[in-house]
Amino acid sequence: MTAASFVNPSGEEVCARLKQVRRIAVVGLSPNPSRPSHGVARALQGYGFEIVPVRPKVTEVLGAKAYAGLAEVPGRIDLVDVFRAPEYIPDIVAQCIALKIPALWLQEGIVHAAAANRARAAGLWVVMDRCLYRDYAGWCR
Question: Residue 15: which H helix or E strand, with range?
């Protein structure tokens, strides 16, 4: 299955969804300020989103307690933002489905159409191969 078999929501749909999002679990959030995941999460914090780092072997990122996996995160997760290689996406999708997480965002450069379509078929709202920060700042601010 190719990326062409997956179509992202429109800018209007993205903004409508993000107005409902307050708490974002960032899978693969790096504690290194020079990494894209760190910059994106920091910027989203600046816009008022609560960031929940999901990264094994890290206790805290951006002043927030980190969790080893999505299943360990207490409370509701509105959206999962993923900074992991494509081979990890099917497992992350399975976790999102099992945890009944309503929305999934695969960052720019992360393409796995089969997993994204599986997530959508299970009822998740999905964006793939786009930058959450750039889209929010460009379309929704």
Answer: helix 11-18
SS3 of residue 43 by DSSP: helix
Neighbours of 2 (CB within 10 A): 8
How confident is the prediction along the chain (141 residues), in pLDDT tens digits per residue?
455 589 999 999 999 999 999 999 999 999 999 999 999 999 999 999 999 999 999 999 999 999 999 999 999 999 999 999 999 999 999 999 999 999 999 999 999 999 999 999 999 999 999 999 999 999 998
**Closest by CA position to 134, among listed 55, 36, 59:** 36
Domains of the chain: 10-140 (3.40.50.720)
Through-space distance between the first and last CA atoms of the chain, rounded to whole angstroms: 34
CB–CB of 113/5 below 8 Å? yes
Q: Is 7 helix (H, G, I), strand (E, B) or coil?
A: coil
